[in-house]
Amino acid sequence: MQQEEDQRRELGAFLRSRRGRITPEQVGLPHTGRRRTPGLRREELALLAGISATWYTYLEQGRDIRASDQVLGAIASTLRLDPHEREHLFRLAGHAPAVLAEEPEPLAAEVAAVPHLLQPQPAYIIDGTYDVLSVNRAAGELFPNLTAAADRPANLARWTFLEPVARDVVVDWETEARGLVARLRMLAGRHPGNSRYTRLIDELKAGSTHMRDWWPEYDVQVQHGGRKRLRPPGREAADFVYTAFHLAEQPELTLVIYSEESRSVVG
């Protein structure tokens, strides 16, 4: 199947990107002079992980082979993957289901009402592809033009990369945008071949040189809350805390609530 082939290619690309980040010195291998490419050679990684070099090469090449949990764990340890990268590796290797529907689920009216009940705290609900399904007035004011397009759903990733005002509002834009790319990479890895992610990522690449440069780095990240420095229109920059809650019956949907750091977070 095409989806399985795409997933195997994605797995190979992810492994190559992480192998290129590990130096021989980091894993105790002797320095052997100049190398044509950075990072470990395939043979070196296979030796350290205790697996066949040929078999590991097939894995990077996207061959139709099945890796066990033990083998994946050994590779993850050798590559020094963090917990999120490890999860991403296992998912790409077919050890977790991909369940996101090709078409978004409708948002129940009572769920859509929640951000409005949280006014004046900025709040919105997004789905797995960062489509904004419900947004209250405070969030619309904090993120200008988020819902400006009438011909398609508002999308937080599209706003971040393609809406010029985003760089004025998000003070540490590059840091936040890189984090968003890493979270998109993690989510897309959970749902390989899903057209909703493919369309969004292609659009962001077409419209943003940053997205084109950062996507091949294969960073992955999961985030459920944190702090952002934002500059609301007409105001000085301020620190905001935000918290994310997954909906119990629709875990791909996330309620995000913001509050200025000097105030308590609703939740």
UniProtKB/TrEMBL annotation:
Pfam families: HTH_31, MLTR_LBD. This is Helix-turn-helix transcriptional regulator. Gene3D superfamilies: 3.30.450.180, lambda repressor-like DNA-binding domains (1.10.260.40). Residues 14-86 form the HTH cro/C1-type domain. InterPro entries: Cro/C1-type_HTH, Lambda_DNA-bd_dom_sf, MLTR_LBD. PANTHER family: BLL4672 PROTEIN (PTHR35010:SF2), BLL4672 PROTEIN-RELATED (PTHR35010).
